[in-house]
Structures are given as structure tokens and as C-alpha cells.
Amino acid sequence: ILPAVSTIERLCADALVAAERRIETRIAENLTADVRDHLDKLLSEMLAGNISRFIWLRNFEVGNNSAAANRLLDRLEFLRTLNINHSALASIPA
User: Fold this and answer.
1) What is the 3-state secondary structure (H, E, C) of the chain?
2) What's the Cα-to-Cα distance from 66 to each of 11, 47, 69, 72, rounded to whole Å?
3) Which domain of life is it from (predicted)?
4) What is the pLDDT of residues 39-53, one digit of tens each?
5) Which of 31, 45, 73, 90 could potentially form a cystine with 53 if both were Cys, beta carbons 3.0 to 4.6 Å apart?
């Protein structure tokens, strides 16, 4: 006898959230205090259009022209300025 589909879905969702939290904790533990502070500031740094830098980074617009590619490259360039060491992800399974 199987539980209801909604029960299985809820259990799967709970397991996914728990796994994501463990991964977030592992990453945070591997970041320096300076990097953590810089990441925290992304939430309060406001840009034109009254959106935070974090929202700007998170927004992804599908595009098929050079302007869209440049916006994506702007995000990548900004992320590279954070100088986050790749070793912060070393303990995260692929």
C-alpha cells in the first residue's frame, strides 16, 4: 500500500529542501568572512529600477541578440569581481 500522491510529493519536496539547506551550509562554511559580507551586501545594494544587485544577478532573460548576450556577460563579469574561490564548492557532490 502506497501513501497518497500528495504525501509522496510533500516528502520529496521536504527532502529536496533539506538537501539544499545542507549544501548551502557547506558552501557558507567554506567562504571567507569577507566574501560572506560582500554577498550579504548584494541584498541591500540598490540599482536603477529599484531592484537589488542580488535580484539583478538572479534575473535571467532569454535572448537571441547581442544586447542580451552583453547583459549576461555583465552579470558574469560582476560575479568574477567577487573573487570567490572555487574551493568553496569542493565539498559539494556533483
Assistant:
1) CCCCHHHHHHHHHHHHHHHHHHHHHHHHHHCCHHHHHHHHHCCCCEECCCEEHHHHHHCCCCCCCHHHHHHHHHHHHHHHHCCCCHHHHCCCCC
2) 43, 22, 5, 10
3) Bacteria
4) 999 999 999 989 999
5) 45
